[in-house]
Write a structure and sequence with these properties.
The structure holds two protein chains of two kinds. By secondary structure, chain A is α+β, with helices and mostly antiparallel strands. Chain A is about 35% helix and about 20% strand. Chain A has 35 helices and 43 strands. The longest helix of chain A has about 40 residues, at about 1000-1040. Chain B has four helices and two strands; from the N terminus they run αββααα. The radius of gyration of chain B is 20 Å and the shape is flat. The interface of A and B includes residues 60, 99, 145, 147 and 217 of A.
């Protein structure tokens, strides 16, 4: 059976049933339905004062690490405490091996095992030390005293194994290291502590710390130069991520770098110590050292002499090091006095990339395309490099000019690359059903998500000009412009200096003449071309260069401009907040966002705005040509075939869209800006070949989709699947242990694990059989085990969950910092997870609530054993029965129905084209927030944490409005009803209604949120009261007013007025009536 | 490594930390860390800026400082300090020029012998030699200028002081 035939018979026919139009559309469908109100969030610029000048000239220059290196690795027990058993180390001087040895904990290793260890050491000429000796002689003796590079893979785990005790790091000045752990490593009180601040899966900041006056020499104390050595820690996991752009395990790193000493595999973890297990540990250190040398050489090739490898924390660090090498002065240093009011406007216009699903839960034939290096491309088109190397920026009022531009702009104007330089503008608009990115809590969600929706606001708002043009292209209506500010760079910096990328003179970039991004992409393309012609040996080197250029282009073209580091303060501080109105308003917060070195919010906002415009152009062109689109994700879009259209016609029209972008190519090489992805190409003998093979898409929600071909038998052959919403869970089975009933992947899996592939395969197969709505993709015995995620106790608040667990155990059995732990899901939660992700907090709120039960357990390689020791971290350690834990089957039951709340027709069982919402907001709906991705990693593993995101309240003008609205509500509705709805006493509500001096905004927001529910209650009560009064009137006519008043035990005069309608019936009267006449 | 070597290495690292570099080399080419001493460029009285030189060079530079003009006022004024700083830099430049010239000529000689077999190494050696000789000439000229400016500034400070101007010029 041919693929086309299958499609016709099965899912694809459903596209017609759900109302997809065949006729070409020119624009968005007209606005339908009532406008909805949602809490809307805007980013604010919050500052504690003028920017600090980077680079403290008074501080003595850091000499950097010495020629000594210490490499070590620890092996632990596999029980929840994960205590040190033994470890292996090497000390090297200028790469020459000075000493290698083993260390062990005599309290953990049995005497027989110690003998095995000594015998092995003797046979292999290794030194043997106890843990305390290793710490004193090697860790401090070499690592601290010799200023050695302390090297390891996943150092926080290894260092914490050596520790005697730990505490949470507190810094009175609110340093970025607060919120981490501090470890006492040595029993020697003259040795400093080690502080580890976890940042992300690939990065932790590690340093020696303590009171400098304790550890510094007497002479330096006298000179006033007492300071603590910070040490030079190098976690290879961090360096590898920065230099290869991939998160590696030691095993994958040795393979990726092609080092001679590979990591071995062992099945002897936790078992009685043997020679082979010791050899495994020794080999780990050999592999670690070789990986270090390989990474060091790779970094050396960059020739960034001013930045040591220890200071490279991410790809962005590498980018920043190049900018420093070229003498680029950060914008905040060059122009510290830039008006913060305008920064507030700029930040409020900042939104991230656009990710949407349009054809939801429909199988559609698509052409999957993406934009070549989207962010560097738009940077080059708009000439944003000029801002990076300028002495600052000027702004001018361009209101009239922008109005005319928006009025007359047509899609063809944007085909002129030069016109993109005119997009360096932000516009204040009065949104009236215009299509803008709206960051809102759609459908009562706890989290803000961004959706391109119709927006009407009675409050002026700022957007980039690119967003305004996108709205015009998609709606045909220009937004109403109130004000526009155009930004221009202020002349070149005088400190600029050319740099050779990767130290290669052929890759020279002159920051004052070249467009850095354009040059990097050009170089990368040239290198790739060279790589295709090169031999096998040279190809590897060229691939490294190509990768470095890619990393550099991506690292310098967006992230560094919007880098904000959230620091927790010990006490609240008054900060200045600047938002959409540009006014300075004080806010008191215990978190502060410290801008990164190259923070430049204008560039961040313009880049993402222009990227959204690119997608809007593709969408508008698709509508013009009568084809649809299935989903888009930041820089890619799947163009979808309309019903009744032939395949050849579809490809022809889709390729017309791709070729439309050709004139926008800012590079010297001939490249397609909107290019067809490899997923569209056929595969023969495991290799991609030219041509196009029908590709189909099944999209659930933003970032959740599968792309697949159909085999001759009509079964799906997955080409690309998303691991979104699956990646944080432990695999229910290994890649090699998949049930035989599940078909093998037809192509090599890249970004997904085998079980994730299998889930998507089952979803798509059900969809093809038209049974996806009621089928569970995880309905298989392989998924009948508790669903779990693995994480580390990376922060003190996470470790605090184990307080009750640790309390009943001896110190050596307790769960400690950086120990692995397991997070499970409870039954009820699993059922609700996809509908209403419960707010979790950090364990000190909502305790004991069944809805917020969060089971966790100390790590155990046997998941079932771990599940039996599960406890609820929200209630402080109450045990959770294994029967209350959700299985993969339950947790994934609604994975393929995940709602796309930001649009209409996006609920669980909805299918077909999603429709844009019409969001109507007033000033009381606007909330200011800070960094959206703060503590994102913890939230992925443990659920949404409302405390993670910095919130900066509302506009000051909003308060009186909110208060007036609340008073109105309290006048209209019964206080007891409102009290029940908002959880505030009726007495306090009366005080608010009668003019309480100062009411908390949170209470006013509660009342505002309860309004729709109160209206429903009021309508129901009104109906009931009317019926009661009708009965009372009839009864009055029958028995007389006085008699009726007597029965009701009320005053006849009052009753008469109520029945005549001149007085409102009190609750007591209605209750009496109720008792007298029970209504149905 | 025995405990004596270990203690020596600890001292070395402590000292290098004070010097502020792991790649220590004196302007005469000396690299032995234990010979390094802190030298006040302008003289202890005039500025706190300390750089590290080997004991021989430090002795020479300190000796040279004794030929600089005598202090005019206590504490010294900005002009006087700047003058002494220029003179201190002039002394360092002179020493550095001498070393650059010597090493440059050695490199040229080496480049012309048959000891270097590879063409690229030979060209690099000769290039380095020429560069160092050119640098030596520039440093000598710089030293001369610095000396003139330094003396001029010290004279200016003395003149203003003698004419009853500000106490600390």
């Amino acid at each position: 059976m041919g693929a086309a035939c299958v499609m016709k018979r099965r899912g694809y026919q459903r596209a017609e049933e759900v109302g997809r139009s065949d006729s070409p559309r020119r624009r968005e469908p007209p606005l339908t339905g009532e406008p909805e109100r949602f809490p809307v969030a805007l980013r604010a610029y919050v500052t504690s004062g003028p920017p600090k000048k980077s680079g403290n000239t008074k501080r003595k220059k850091d000499a950097g690490p010495s020629e000594w290196s210490l490499v070590f690795d620890a092996e632990t027990t596999i029980d929840p405490s994960q205590r040190l058993r033994f470890g292996s180390y090497q000390v090297r001087n200028n790469d020459d091996l000075s000493e290698r040895g083993l260390f062990y904990d005599p309290d953990v290793l049995l005497p027989d095992e110690q003998a095995t260890l000594r015998q092995y050491a003797q046979e292999h000429e290794l030194s043997v030390r106890t843990r305390v000796e290793f710490i004193e002689d090697i860790f401090f003796g070499v690592g601290y005293d010799f200023l050695a590079n302390i090297i390891g893979f996943n150092l926080p785990f290894d260092i914490s194994r050596l520790a005697e005790s730990h505490d949470s790091s507190r810094n009175r000045r609110g340093s970025w290291m607060s919120g981490g752990f501090t470890f006492r490593i040595s029993p020697n009180k003259w040795r400093p502590r080690v502080v580890i601040m976890h940042h992300s899966a690939s990065l932790a900041f590690i340093r020696f710390a303590g009171d400098p006056t304790l550890y510094a020499s007497r002479s330096s104390r006298k000179r006033g130069e007492a300071r603590i050595r910070r040490g030079y820690f190098l976690d290879l996991r961090t360096a590898a991520k920065a230099l290869t752009s991939q998160l590696h395990s030691l095993e994958s790193l040795t393979i990726s770098l092609g080092v001679a000493q590979k990591k071995r595999k062992s099945t002897e973890h936790g078992k009685t110590l043997t020679s082979s297990y010791i050899a495994y540990a020794v080999q780990d250190v050999n592999a670690t050292w070789e990986c270090y040398v390989a990474l060091r050489e790779r970094y050396k090739a960059h020739q960034l002499r001013n930045t040591p490898l220890n200071s490279i924390y991410s790809e962005a660090s590498l980018g920043k090091a190049y900018l420093e090498e070229m003498g680029v002065v950060p914008w905040r240093d060059a122009q510290p006095d830039f008006p913060p009011e305008i920064l507030g406007n700029i930040m409020s216009a900042f939104f991230g990339g656009r990710a949407e699903v349009h054809l939801r839960r429909l199988i559609t034939q698509v052409l999957y395309c993406d934009f070549t290096s989207m962010y560097p491309t738009v940077c080059t088109l708009m000439g944003l490099w000029e801002f990076v190397v300028s002495k600052g920026m000027s702004h001018r009022d361009s209101t009239e000019e922008t109005r005319l531009k928006l009025k007359g702009v047509a899609i063809s104007d944007l085909q002129n690359a030069a016109s993109w330089r005119g997009l360096r503008t932000i516009v204040q608009v009065q949104p009236e059903a215009d299509l803008f990115p709206v960051r809102a809590r759609y459908g009562d969600a706890h989290q803000y998500t961004i959706g391109l929706n119709y927006l009407t606001s009675d409050f002026p708002m700022w957007f980039t000009l690119a967003d305004c043009i996108a709205s015009k292209l998609l709606t045909g209506k220009a937004p109403k412009v109130l004000k526009a500010l155009t930004f221009e760079p202020l002349g070149l910096q005088s400190t600029l200096w050319p740099a050779n990328i990767m130290g290669n003179t052929d890759y020279r970039v002159d920051p004052s003449k070249d467009d850095f991004y354009g040059r990097l992409i050009d170089l990368r393309m040239a290198v790739r071309q060279r790589g295709k012609r090169a031999g096998k040996q040279e190809a590897a080197k060229i691939e490294t260069e190509q990768l470095a250029l890619k990393i550099l282009a991506n690292a310098t073209s967006y992230g560094i401009f919007v880098e904000l580091n959230v620091e927790e303060l010990r006490a609240k501080r008054t900060l200045r907040r600047y938002g959409v109105s540009g006014k300075s308003e004080p806010v008191s917060r215990d978190k502060i966002e410290e801008p990164g070195r190259y923070f430049h919010p204008l560039l961040g906002g313009l880049i993402t705005g222009a990227a959204r415009l690119m997608l809007a152009i593709a969408e508008a062109r698709a509508a013009e040509l009568g084809i649809d689109w299935a989903f888009c994700d930041t820089d890619s879009m799947a163009l979808a075939k309309s019903n009744g259209m032939s395949e050849a016609d579809f490809y022809s029209r889709a390729l017309t869209i791709c070729s439309w972008f050709k004139p926008l190519n800012p590079y010297s090489n001939d490249v397609d800006i909107f290019k067809i992805e490899n997923e569209n190409r056929p595969i023969k003998d495991g290799k991609l070949v030219d041509g196009l093979e029908p590709l189909f898409c099944y999209g659930v929600s933003a970032k959740r989709y599968a792309l697949f071909n159909l085999s001759a038998h009509g079964s799906p052959v997955l080409r690309k699947t998303s691991a979104h919403g699956l990646g944080h869970w432990l695999p229910p089975y290994g890649d090699e242990k998949a049930p035989k009933a599940f078909p093998e992947p037809a192509i090599e899996l890249k970004a997904v694990k085998r079980w994730q592939h299998d889930i998507w395969h089952r979803i798509v197969t059900s969809a093809l059989a038209d049974s996806d709505t009621n089928s569970n993709p995880a309905a298989h015995p392989a998924f009948d085990r508790p669903v779990a995620s693995q994480y580390h106790a990376t922060k003190p608040f996470i470790l605090n969950w184990f307080k009750a667990y640790n309390k009943t155990r001896r110190p050596e059995q307790q769960v400690g910092p950086f120990n692995f732990l397991l997070s499970f899901q409870a039954h009820a939660l699993a059922r609700q997870a996809d509908q209403e992700p419960a707010a979790t907090g950090r364990g000190h709120r909502d305790r004991g609530s069944a809805a917020t039960m969060r089971p966790v357990a100390a790590y155990n390689s046997d998941l079932l054993a771990a599940a039996k020791t599960c406890f609820d971290r929200m209630s402080g350690g109450a045990p959770v029965s294994i029967n209350d834990l959700a299985t993969y089957r339950e947790a994934l039951a609604q994975y393929h129905l995940y709602p796309e709340s930001k649009f209409l027709n996006g609920r669980h069982r909805d299918r077909g084209p999603t429709q844009r919402r019409h969001v109507k907001i007033g000033i009381t709906d606007i909330h200011y927030i800070g960094k959206e991705a703060n503590e994102l990693e913890e939230q992925v593993f443990f659920g949404f944490d409302p405390e993670a995101q910095p919130e900066y309240g509302m506009e000051d003008e909003a308060y009186p409005k909110l208060l007036a609205e609340a008073k109105e509500v309290l006048k209209v509705h019964r206080l007891t009803t409102v009290s029940a709805a908002v959880g505030v006493s009726a007495r306090y509500l009366r005080e608010i209604r009668d003019g309480a001096p100062k009411v908390r905004v949170e209470i006013l927001k509660k009342i505002e949120r309860a309004m729709p529910a109160l209206e429903v209650v009021q309508a129901a009560e009104g109906d009931r009261a009317r019926k009661l009064l009708d009965w009372a009137r009839a009864e009055r006519d029958r028995i007389g007013l006085r008699m009726l008043a007597g029965k009701l035990r009320t005053d006849p005069s009052n009753l008469g007025k109520v029945l005549e309608g001149s007085r409102r019936a009190s609750g007591a009267l209605l209750a009496s009536l109720c008792r007298l006449v029970p209504l149905e | 490594m025995n405990k004596y070597d270990s203690a020596k290495e600890r001292r070395r690292q402590r000292y290098l930390e004070r010097i502020g570099t792991q790649h220590h080399v004196c302007i005469c080419g000396e690299t032995d860390w234990c010979t390094f001493e802190g030298h006040h460029i302008a003289g202890r009285l005039f500025d706190n800026h300390v750089e590290f030189f080997c004991a021989n060079c430090h002795r020479r530079l300190s000796e040279s400082q004794k030929t600089h003009p005598k202090p005019i006022s206590k504490p010294p004024g900005t002009v006087e300090s700047a003058g002494h700083y220029c003179l201190g830099l002039a002394d360092i430049s002179t020493c550095a020029a001498r070393t650059a010239d010597k090493l440059g000529h050695q490199l040229l000689e080496l480049g012309r012998t048959d000891e270097i077999t590879s063409d690229s190494s030979r060209s690099l050696t000769l290039e380095g030699g020429h560069f160092l000789i050119a640098l030596a000439m520039i440093l000598e000229n710089v030293a001369r200028c610095l000396e003139q400016y330094g003396s001029g500034l010290c004279d200016e400070a003395a003149r203003v002081s003698a004419s009853g101007g500000s106490r600390a010029v």
